[in-house]
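Supplementary Text 2. Reproducibility record for the structural model of the 156-residue chain.

All settings were left at their defaults, and a single model was retained for analysis rather than an ensemble. We include the record here because the model underlies the residue-level annotations in Supplementary Table 4.
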Amino acid sequence: MRTRSAAHSTRFAASADSVLALFYTDASALAKLVRDEPESAALRAFLADDDLVSSEIVVTEVPRAIRRAVADDPRLPLVRMIVRAGELLDAVALLPVDRGVLAAAGAIAHPWLRALDAIHVVSAADVSPIDAFVTYDERQGASARLAGLRTVSPGR
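Retained model, structure tokens:
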């Protein structure tokens, strides 16, 4: 994965012949890149060296997911996983969450969609065109598809 800033996200590599894919990744996908889960290898292979973008809310969501996983399985290496998460998040273009994003997320008609998931869907739709919305959350994926986004869950 290449480091990109959200303000200067480009889909072109140094060579004009090489176009990178742009994937919006939610916290469920990013957590699988930090912690080995059944889908992790397929996800890593799918993303390869493509560009990743997400909402800045993942700065909170991913470490929280890691801490929940360690609470469930204390054998997991918390410090190493938190460091790995920080390195990963440094390589993802993060989109700011402003009042407009929050208002649009609150206006999504689907009552079953959680607040943070709605923020991801709105953020991904705003950065479109993206090659795919990568998620392992079924409700969020359904809402993203209703918003016109292609969704993928490699390894599932």
